């Protein structure tokens, strides 16, 4: 089986194939042959459905830089590496039927992505920036039973969310939650605190992070010169990739947000999912002013 796999990949490399089918191969690890030397620079579509993969390589974008479609349906993937955000040409990503509990924020920053399939996983929240790109038009998160909050950027997209929103005791979760009426949603793990209309002053750490971000993005400077000595490693990594951007004004946010919840019934999507799901749209705002002025349908 291994020799047959190597031969298939070698032929694809030699003949510069654009499509490679590795479905039903009982693969437990991403094939090293795909990552050898310069990788497969001409490959555009990779099919790896119904294997037993648990993760993806960090150098995926380096070795397969021209991927347009990546199909990983029905594996055992628990974590998707941040490096996936470097697949700048990716238009279709299928991670349905895996074991995902978290989707890294970098997926929300794939500017060419049009179709995203995350159905039948174990997701509890989605990245705040998911849907910010105008290119993303189709998002399917059906049957993620604990998922109750969809980023407000998605309200005018084609969404599949049937089977989401099963009731769960908040005390069972280790994530911050936010409630409005009878609906409670879980927030991303990076959120350390949430604000209300009465909280006009941001925490000092959040103010510092936003100030640093603007200082080193106003002019072309490399954030790598900030060593872990000058800033804790966890905050340094967060500075490179904010939690998300304000849904009202696009201000970057890091550990503190002002959430605003809109029930599904108040949006155009309600008719498509009536009676089949209990979810809402979450707007992530950066200040009390944005919180008060943000309107989902405006």
From TrEMBL:
Transmembrane segments: none annotated. It comes from the Eukaryota. Pfam families: LRR_1, LRR_8. The keyword Repeat applies. Keywords: Leucine-rich repeat, Repeat. SUPFAM superfamilies: L domain-like (SSF52058). SMART domains: LRR_TYP. This is Leucine-rich repeat-containing protein 28 isoform X3. It comes from Mesocricetus auratus. The lineage of its organism: Eukaryota, Metazoa, Chordata, Craniata, Vertebrata.
